């Protein structure tokens, strides 16, 4: 191992030790399920905001998304635009109302329990939603583990031992995330997310700015692009072209449809539920929107500037490492700079860990609170339920680890699959539960199932000449699954029994009440 690698590894070790210590500290304050899964609903504005966005922005923000911009140019910016719009709408229209409603509806600690309490269901909604969470979060967490493994393999591996180092990195990333999530629960996760979110932002903003300054010191950006095989710089930075070709309407719709996913993301929604007060929520909203706007701009710049800056041309397999390689090239002069580069690389590790921990925790809460205590053993003690939750964290981590074992797995591909699944299954149900009093349990169940089935049929079943509908049409499954689930939920709600007066009165009571 080179001296440079040893310095970077020391930065990683320093960072990981801090994260584990935080988990150990908060383990002493975790006494029950509300502490472990919602932190006692005591999050402050900054912690809630940065934690929500950090848990959202996994390795795909610093690796997957820049990789798509690196290859395709500005044409893929529609994904970022859709995600930014979804973030803003989620914070303005869902956050406060969801927090109020989950407190009013039986002090719901999880999204499945909110569905159960909101619609007065008798177990079906809890079971189905918990199963959906377990399935799609296993895939989503796998994308985070894969990001961590690729980070280690790119830095410490060679072409000859890449697979071996990838596996080692996968083990390390999974182990560290597992340890502090297992120990501290929600408080540990949110505190580490605050630190990781700030580190991510510093890293992702600094690197493209420094790279651009270095790149354009003695040449123009267009000339640098041309030297890297991009003869038409204007086309490369044109949001209406992809790989030099005019963008299709399906590509624009698919990019914007990513924003719909936010309404159904349990690991983001649970942050809204945990905020201390309405006044803190308003502060969180401003912080979160500012953070995510800067993050998406920086992610775009990394991909575009990286295409011109890096000497070696990356392909589809290596493009997701563009940010890593930029940091390595910029900070390789001496020990101090290499250590700073190592800290910036920890920003990628931060993005990975801040999402994986949240996903593991939400999955554990669904299994422990909703399936075990909610259905299997309703008289379970807090202690046994908490233990089931922690064991669930380990089991889901193992499943995600197995999924991520393939070094060729695409970070963005895994995220895309999970994002569509959650957005279609839960998004319409969350929105109608919060804003339409006529919605009922039958409609919610039908919407949830139809959204999930649509995504599976669209993305996984080869129905057209041996290919999936998604591959054939080029249309993202979420753009189809979300409206299908929405329409189905409305129709089924209208043709089945109206909600009881108790449910309607509860719905009306949370409109303008601050809690």
What's the SSE blueprint?
Elements: H1 3-27, H2 33-38, H3 45-56, H4 59-72, H5 77-104, H6 111-119, H7 124-156, H8 162-215, H9 221-227, H10 233-236, E1 241-242, E2 245-246, H11 249-257, H12 266-274, H13 278-309, H14 322-330, H15 335-376, H16 382-403, H17 411-435, H18 441-460, H19 469-473, H20 477-495, H21 501-509
Antiparallel strand pairs: 1-2
Helix pairs in contact: 1-8, 1-15, 3-8, 3-12, 3-13, 3-15, 4-13, 4-15, 5-11, 5-12, 5-13, 6-7, 7-8, 7-15, 7-16, 7-17, 7-18, 8-13, 8-14, 8-15, 8-16, 9-13, 14-15, 15-16, 17-18, 17-20, 18-20
Number of strands: 2
Main sheet: strands, sense, barrel: 2 strands, antiparallel
Number of domains: 1
Helicity, as a percent range: over 70%
- Output mean pLDDT: 84
- What is the gyration radius calculated from CA atoms? 22 Å
How far is the N terminus from the C terminus? 56 Å
Q: How would you describe this structure to a colleague?
A:
The chain is mainly α and 515 residues long. The chain has one domain (3-509): Sodium/glucose cotransporter. The chain contains 21 helices and 2 strands. It has helices at residues 3-27, 33-38, 45-56, 59-72, 77-104, 111-119, 124-156, 162-215, 221-227, 233-236, 249-257, 266-274, 278-309, 322-330, 335-376, 382-403, 411-435, 441-460, 469-473, 477-495, 501-509, and strands at 241-242, 245-246. Strands 1-2 form a two-stranded antiparallel sheet. Helix 5 packs across helix 12 (266-274). The longest helix is centred in the middle third of the chain and has 54 residues, at 162-215. The termini are far apart. The model has no long low-confidence stretch (mean pLDDT 84).
